[in-house]
Design brief:
Blueprint (H helix, E strand, L loop, with lengths): L2 E3 L5 E3 L1 E4 L12 H13 L4 E3 L8 H10 L8 E6 L1 E5 L18 E5 L3 H15 L4 E7 L5 H18 L2 E8 L3 H9 L4 E5 L13 H8 L2 E5 L17 E2 L2 E2 L2 H16 L4 H8 L6 E7 L3 H12 L4 H9 L8
Parallel strand pairs: 3-4, 3-14, 4-5, 5-8, 8-9, 9-10, 10-11, 11-14
Antiparallel strand pairs: 1-2, 6-7, 12-13
Helix pairs in contact: 1-2, 1-9, 5-6, 8-9
């Protein structure tokens, strides 16, 4: 699998393994299935793995760390995130987490982009992962915390990068506007944008991608399927978009894109996986994987030959601008 390098030297495979589902996102996954998914990804050549404390209150980090513990540390890149500090919650006994993960609520998340909070968060992540360093650290969803994240948050990550505790630093969000400000105003190396560089939402093309390219900041694109809307060759009436019911106009647009893809012998998910990689600032597309079959389908979609004529037709019809 091809790699693309960050300016700090870390090399990401063009397809990354998103480990949120290893944290029991929306439904339970067992340890054996998680291990098998990571093993399948490794066998397919995937060497970039992304996780976060938020995913299953640390479960994703523990499972991913265990699944990779026998792999040569220099042969893969791992990213995690800071900003949500995990703390014991005695009142959670007997309850389930209420943020989308099927895990006991014995821990609670607390927003904290202070120096102490970031150091404590990273220390906890290293312990769960069983590692002494991580390659990439993102400030996680600082939408309501710009002041702290852009000052003490970034400053602490810069300090850790200078000390060699972490490699590249950045921010990960579901919006492009604030990520643009991180690129414009701070010393980040990479940003992860979720759902804003897809076949139906190209918000990141307006300012984020051009500025990132100008500044030498890499972009990792996540949520390429927009929560499921683009994950099937046929778009259903009850499609999900950004974690909620897809508006009729969005469903119609996705179906129009699918018709163009079909004319060129390509499925909608094939195009969804490969679209963001057409932009030179994009280093990797991270896709959530729960099972070996998820990994195999992802790798197959990434390897599908897509004719340039298809991208031109999508652009000419005003459906999807070609970022190349």
């Amino acid at each position: 699998m091809r790699h693309r390098a960050l300016r700090t030297g870390e090399s990401l495979t063009e397809i990354g393994f998103g480990a949120a589902q290893l944290g029991n996102l929306f439904r339970e996954t067992d340890d054996a299935t998680s291990q098998a998914a990571v093993d399948t990804a490794w066998d397919a050549g995937i060497r970039y793995f992304d996780t976060a404390p938020h995913y299953g209150l640390g479960l994703s980090e523990r499972r991913l760390g265990h699944a990779l513990h026998a792999r040569p540390r220099t042969e893969y890149v791992l990213s995690t995130k800071v900003g949500r500090l995990l703390e014991p919650d005695p009142s959670g006994s007997g309850r389930q987490d209420d943020e989308g993960f099927v895990v006991p609520a014995t821990l609670r998340r607390r927003w904290d982009f202070s120096r102490d909070g970031i150091l404590r968060s990273l220390e906890g992540s290293l312990e769960r992962l069983g590692l002494d360093r991580v390659d990439v650290v993102y400030l996680h969803d600082p939408d309501e915390h710009w002041d702290a994240a852009s000052t003490t948050g970034v400053d602490t990550l810069v300090e850790l990068r200078d000390q060699g505790v972490v490699g590249a630093i950045g921010a990960g969000m579901n919006q492009a506007a604030m990520l643009t400000e991180f690129v414009r105003r701070t010393d980040v190396d990479v940003v992860m944008v979720a759902g804003r560089l897809t076949l139906v939402d190209q918000t990141a093309l307006q300012e984020l991608l051009p500025l990132a390219l100008e500044r030498g900041v890499s972009v990792v694109a996540a949520a390429a399927y927009n929560s499921g809307l683009l994950s099937s060759a046929v778009v259903p009436d009850d499609a999900v978009f950004d974690y909620g019911p897809a508006p009729a106009s969005v469903v119609q647009r996705a179906r129009a894109v699918a018709r163009v893809c079909d004319r060129h012998g390509v499925t909608l998910p094939d195009a969804a996986v490969q679209y963001a990689l057409r932009h030179p600032a994009v280093a990797s597309v991270v896709l959530g994987c729960r099972t070996p079959d998820h990994v195999r389908s992802t790798v197959s979609r990434a390897a599908t030959e897509i004719p340039e004529e298809m991208w031109r037709e999508l652009d000419d019809e005003g459906l999807v601008p070609d970022p190349r």
